[in-house]
Design a protein that fits this description.
Layout (H helix, E strand, L loop, with lengths): L5 H25 L9 E3 L1 H10 L13 E3 L14 H33 L5
Antiparallel strand pairs: 1-2
Length: 121
């Protein structure tokens, strides 16, 4: 028996993916001065679609999201392709999405809590 509907489970999977992306972007920032390091990102669209397809299973969505080398980034003379401004912008955007998903899930859980308590509170 499933306690949560596919929307809540899909949103949870999406939150897992955004958290995994945040780790990858933070690694890029941490390696901004590492010679030969290539900026990475997640193949996000495909993994997000799979997260919503698999809602109802116990599998974690972030297992599908494999970091890939960001082909759009420019490689500097030392072989590093991390641009701090770009990475910080991506981190900021990703953070906003995490906050938004967290708020949506909190409202869903508040609705469930109200239903359990009889809607009187």
């Amino acid at each position: 028996m499933r306690i949560f509907g596919p929307v809540v489970e899909g949103l949870g999977g999406a939150l897992d993916l955004y958290q995994a992306r945040h780790r990858v972007l933070a690694e890029n920032v941490a390696n901004a001065e590492t010679p030969g390091y290539r900026a990475r990102d997640l193949e996000f669209g495909t993994a997000l679609a799979r997260a919503f397809e698999r809602s109802g299973t116990s599998e974690s969505a972030d297992g599908d999201a494999e970091p890939i080398v960001d082909a759009r980034s420019v490689v500097k003379i030392d072989g590093n392709s991390v641009d701090l401004d770009t990475e910080m912008a991506r981190l900021s955007e990703n953070s906003m999405k995490i906050v938004a998903l967290t708020r949506i899930l909190a409202r869903k859980y508040e609705g469930l809590k109200a239903a359990i308590q009889g809607g009187s509170r």
